[in-house]
Amino acid sequence: MRVSQLLHVMDKNDEVVINDFGKAVDKMTIYEGLVKGINRDNPINKMCVACICASDDTIYIVAEFPKGKGGE
Known about the structure:
4 strands; mainly beta; globular; 1 helix
């Protein structure tokens, strides 16, 4: 599932944190805020959801950019 598909069904005022575990620890949080703050043309939307969890009224999403053809 793409991040954009998940965000589409969420309330625009939901708080969300999107992490990319492929990045360094100090840079893995790539977005933190309300769903409505993510524009349609944001590259985050093309990422694939790897894991979802919730805590303290916030949805946490672990996402990764899709691999190229052949799994690269």
